[in-house]
Amino acid sequence: MMDKHIMVPFDKETAAGLRSGDYVYLTGTVYVARDAAHARMDEALDRGDKLPFEVSGNIIYYMGPSPAREGRPIGSAGPTTATRMDKYAPRLLDLGLIGMIGKGKRRQPVKDAIVRNGAVYFAAVGGAGALLSKCIKSSEVIAYDDLGTEAIRKLYVEDFPVIVVIDSTGADLYETSILEYSRP
């Protein structure tokens, strides 16, 4: 396991250098989308419409922020459960999405799409939303404003801490950790 600092967005070569269990600090642009926004993006793709942002090479953070306090760009910004986006993730990965940030396990079709596309799944620490928000320097709603906290946001983050859970080879930290700690 290694600590790595990377700029986002990033490419498949950078993703290929990340390994399950690596601690990574992201700096750059990250997009926020949850269930309702994913459903709208899926409908847009079904109609042949463009998405509100270029997914290729970018990262989606599964998060619904709380309201910002005075002088801050965002409120608490902890991750939400990733499996709720599993029905949408393979399609976005096939369009070039390079990474996702959430918490919890992913289903096999998502893992297969991660490997097929040379992408990565990161976990952010659940319950640490107030601390994570300190790494968010700007936040702007860019689409689906009517969804409130589920609107798509464009964030600028600095040294945003995540852990590689599923790397581009399919190695899954949740699975390897279970094996490691269940040995006699």
Question: Could you provide a short overview of the structure?
Answer:
The protein is of the alpha/beta class.
Entry keywords:
6 helices, alpha/beta, 7 strands, 5-stranded mixed barrel, 184 residues
How would you explain this protein's 3D organization?
- With 184 residues, the chain is α/β, with parallel strands linked by helices.
- The protein is 27% helix and 27% strand.
- It is built from 6 helices and 7 strands.
- It has helices at residues 12-16, 35-47, 89-94, 108-117, 129-133, 173-182; strands at 3-8, 23-32, 59-61, 99-102, 120-123, 136-143, 152-166.
- The protein has a 5-stranded mixed beta barrel.
- Strand 2, helix 2 and strand 3 (59-61) form a beta-alpha-beta unit.
- The longest helix is centred in the first third of the chain and has 13 residues, at 35-47.
- The protein is globular, with a radius of gyration of 16 Å.
- The two termini are 23 Å apart.
- 37% of the residues are buried.
- The model has no long low-confidence stretch (mean pLDDT 93).
